[in-house]
Amino acid sequence: MKRKGILLAGGTGSRLWPITLGTSKQLLPIYDKPMVYYPLSVLMLAGIREIAIITTPDDQPQFQRLLGDGGQWGVSFTWVIQERPEGLAQAYLLTRDFLDGAPSAMVLGDNIFFGHGLPEVLTRADAQASGGTVFGYHVADPERYGVAAFDADGRVTMIVEKPKVPPSSFAITGLYFLDGRAPDLAAKVRPSERGELEIVDLLEAYRAEGSLQVERMGRGFAWLDTGTPGSLLDAGNFVRTLQDRQGMQVGSPDEIAFRQGWIDRDGLAARTRVFGKSSYGTQLASVLRE
């Protein structure tokens, strides 16, 4: 059964207030593209073409206006409402019918991933027929994140949320490849002290049975969480630097769809005309000229 995608773009974005009082965090710009383009691109790089997008009731029309039905990229979107944000593991309950027993890859709508070899890393995770794969990223301040602990053989022994004394420097990123049991296991998760269904508790169910893999992302990768004003600015500057230096887009669903063979040259040309003389449209035109 082919893996399906979940893009979690709900929540209130309260760490960015007052910026997000009038719009969804995931619709804010990261340099020249809306934030949601970047995690969407990760799912597309993983070869996933059926994607559920979880939004708040108020924000859903804006996302639909921006993204359409996915047909312009050769993918399909299913729209799911999150009435109240009740933890990341809630996403698997909301998408139970959509998944219908299929394995999934869930990405958080405010996470950006970049690095040479990223498609190969995603392919390895997708090839995991059972259990789960998450990604560890070395950070300077692990106490701010869910952190993985490892034994002498490199196997994950626990994942601790915001530990005062971190067992390692590897934070768990917002990208989760889980098998078809995820909704059933999520249904067994009990709310935490803050009243949320914690993703750490869901991952612990996989770890306890020995079926959770932690893929460590090395120095050649970048993982950016854009949940604060400072990190939002940093992410925009990061993307701008890469694109201006290399002359290539980061996080372009149009280019990825073309290179995956999901749209042809006529399809890409039509998308290029949509964006006209914008920097995004100019870059797509350069892809067509290759």
Automatic annotation (TrEMBL):
TM spans (from-to): none
GO molecular function per UniProt: glucose-1-phosphate thymidylyltransferase activity; metal ion binding
InterPro entries linked: G1P_thy_trans_s, NTP_transferase_dom, Nucleotide-diphossugar_trans
Required co-factors: Mg(2+)
Keyword check for Transcription regulation: no
Ranges for domain Nucleotidyl transferase: 4-239
Catalyzed reaction equations: dTTP + alpha-D-glucose 1-phosphate + H(+) = dTDP-alpha-D-glucose + diphosphate
EC numbers: 2.7.7.24
SUPFAM superfamilies per UniProt: Nucleotide-diphospho-sugar transferases (SSF53448)
Regions annotated as coiled coil: none
A Pfam match: NTP_transferase
UniProtKB keywords: Magnesium, Metal-binding, Nucleotidyltransferase, Transferase
PANTHER family noted in UniProt: GLUCOSE-1-PHOSPHATE THYMIDYLYLTRANSFERASE (PTHR43532), GLUCOSE-1-PHOSPHATE THYMIDYLYLTRANSFERASE 1 (PTHR43532:SF1)
Annotated family: Belongs to the glucose-1-phosphate thymidylyltransferase family.
NCBIfam families found in the cross-reference section: rmlA
Role, per record: Catalyzes the formation of dTDP-glucose, from dTTP and glucose 1-phosphate, as well as its pyrophosphorolysis.
Record-given protein name: Glucose-1-phosphate thymidylyltransferase
Organism encoding this protein: Tabrizicola piscis
